[in-house]
Amino acid sequence: MKTIGAILLTTLLLAGAAWGAAFDHGHTALNPVLKRFVKDALVDYAALKADPKELDAYLSSLASVSEGEFRKWTEPQQLAFLINLYNAATLRLIIDHYPIKSIRKIGGWFSGPWNQPVVPLFGQAITLDKLEHQILRHQYTEPRIHFAIVCGALGCPPLRSEAYTAGQLEVQLEAQGRQFLGTARKNSFDYKTRTLNLSPIFKWFATDFEQKSGSVIKFVRPYFPPAIQAELDRGGFKVRHTDYDWALNEAARR
């Protein structure tokens, strides 16, 4: 089975030709993978593991991008690239260890799934943690990335069946926010107890949302329907964080 190291080696051998070609900002190579193996945000990992050629080819195309080229892109182009990279590398990581019940089963006691060098970027293999926390969160002020990057758990926001692109990024991120905040088992308002139930994502990354809007409540408010917005405006409610479901977002579960 091809590993991230093998993907990087193949990419380096073809680097001369790859770096000379214009990068496809439509991410069209990823779309067939997502359309074929992802349905209703659930992934057919068994089928993807049996036929990962298109996924590996896409990861190789991302690995062929130099840092110098990347820095010349617009911010939406960079964000779309990094979000797709995170999701594609996560799919690869999971099928490398599949069958598993949860991504948290990958790795050892001191080196979990997010500390594995599995993300091919700028000629090296970095970790998902580095991509998320040191690059996406640190270098960009865009908390909606938390609606887009998917760690392979049912508690995550939904995995789209299409790639993110610069031209559609605003629409896609807003749609992700509405879908995620509209999922009752993860985010809801209990009128009887006046409790706002929020995903733990809004606790773990509260500073990201606060930096953008001043508070988590102000950030999430526009994504709720008008009736809930009115309740939030009234104040006097409690906030509770729902349980995070770490079970694999696997199509076979349904």
Describe what this molecule looks like in 3D.
There is one protein chain. This protein is mainly α. The protein has 13 helices and 7 strands. The strands form 3 sheets. Strands 5-6-7 form a 3-stranded mixed beta sheet. It has a two-stranded antiparallel sheet with strand order 1-2. A two-stranded antiparallel sheet has the order 3-4. A hairpin with a 2-residue loop joins strand 1 and strand 2. The chain is globular and about 55 Å long. About 2% of the residues have low confidence.
Write the layout of secondary structure elements.
Blueprint: H1 4-13, H2 15-20, H3 31-37, E1 38-39, E2 42-43, H4 45-50, H5 53-63, H6 67-71, H7 75-97, E3 117-121, E4 124-127, H8 128-139, H9 169-181, E5 188-190, E6 195-198, H10 201-204, H11 206-213, H12 216-220, H13 226-234, E7 238-241
Parallel strand pairs: 6-7
Antiparallel strand pairs: 1-2, 3-4, 5-6
Strand content: 5-15%
Which word captures the global form? globular
Give the SSE string. Answer: HHHEEHHHHEEHHEEHHHHE
Largest sheet, strands/sense/barrel = 3 strands, mixed
Class by alpha and beta content: mainly alpha
The count of strands amounts to: 7
If helices are DSSP runs of H or I spanning 4 or more residues, what is the number of helices?
13
Strand arrangement within the widest β-sheet reads 5-6-7
| Average of the residue pLDDT scores | 93
Span of the ends, CA to CA: 27 Å
- In helices, the fraction of residues equals 40-55%
Outline the low-pLDDT stretches. Answer: 15-20
> Could you tell me the radius of gyration in angstroms?
19 Å
